[in-house]
C-alpha cells in the first residue's frame, strides 16, 4: 500500500531538501576558500565583523562596553551589505558576527539573511541576552556561540547583567527548538569562575550543546579597544593556573564531555609545544566603523578609503602574516585549533570530524533541557544542573 503524505507536507519536505543542498554548497564553498588560502593565496577567508560598539552587558572581564557612546559610528545596514559584497568578491566565504553585542542591532535579521543568501557561512558570538526574543528571526544563522560563564545565576554577577543566566538558557532552548542553528556555549575562565569547568561541561552535556573554553590571561589585553585599565590583571589566570586550566580541559575531553577543543590542541598546550599561528591568514577583523585591526588590536587599515584587495596586496598585511607565524602568544585554545585545522593536521581533522556530532545533532535529539525549570521566567536561583556520567 502506498501512503501519500499531504501536498503541504511534501512541499515542506522539498523546501527542506532544497535548503539542505544549498547549505552543503555553502559549506563546500567555505572549505574550498580555506584550501585556496592554505595552498595558494594565504589570504583570510573569514570576515570577523565587530558589528557594534554597543553592548547591553557589563562583564567584569571586559571593558568593551565602555565604547557605547561610539555606537553612532556603527556601519548602517546598506554599508554592511556593501562590505559583504566586497568581502565575497575578495574570496571570503565566512561571516563571523560579534560585538559588542550583535543582537542589539535592529537589522540583525536582515544582515544575517543577506550574508547567508550571498553565500557566506554565518556565525555569531552573542551574550545570549536577547536570543529568546530574536531566535525566530535568526533562521539563517548557521552557528551560534553563546557566552555563559557559570552554571547558575552567579553568572549574572560575572556578566554584570541581572537575569542573564535565565535569558541565556531560555534563548538557547528557543534557538534549538527552531532547529536550524548549531549552538555551543563559550565559557571564559578567570579567577571569578575558577573551578567551574567541570560543572559547565556537565551543563553543556545536559543541554545537548557543545562547549568551548576561553581563558583570561593576566598579561594580555585582548578584547579591549579602549586605553582604560584592563581588568585582566585582577581576574586573569597566572601561568600556574593556566597549566591547570589546560590539564582540566584535557581530562574533561577524555571523559567524553562535549568540548569543541580537540585532544591534540589541549595536549600541546599541556606540553607547552610551540606552534605556527595561521590566524592572520584565516580571519580579517573589521571594527564597527570599517577599520581593520590586527589580532593584537594594533591598527592596520582603513577599509573606507581602500579595498580588501588593496589591503591584501599591501606590505602591512604581509609583514603581519610573517610576524604572526612565530608569535605563539595566544593562550586561547580556539586560535591554536584554527591554526591546526588550517595546517591540515591529520589528528586535528580527525578530532573535528568526531566532535561534529556536538554541533550537527538532530534538533529533536538536542532539546534535552527540561521545560519545567526554564518555563518559570522568574529566574534560576538554586537551579542545580543534572550530573551526567559518561
Ligand atoms: S564580554 Fe561581550 S558581552 Fe561582555 S561586556 Fe564585553 S562585549 Fe559585552
Ligand atoms: S598567537 Fe599571536 S599572531 Fe596568533 S592570533 Fe595570537 S596574538 Fe595573534
Q: How would you characterize the overall build of this protein?
A:
It is a single chain. This protein has helices at residues 7-41, 77-89, 108-118, 131-134, 155-159, 164-178, 197-207, 232-235, 239-254, 263-270, 279-282, 308-313, 315-325, 333-342, 346-359, 363-366, 371-375; strands at 46-50, 94-98, 121-126, 143-147, 182-189, 210-215, 283-286, 291-293, 299-302. By secondary structure, it is of the alpha/beta class. The chain has a single domain (15-375), classed as Aldolase class I (TIM Barrel), CATH 3.20.20. 42% of the residues are buried. Helix 2 (77-89) runs parallel beside helix 3 (108-118) and helix 9 (239-254) runs antiparallel to helix 10. Residues 55, 57-59, 62, 64-65, 99-101, 127 line the site of one iron/sulfur cluster.
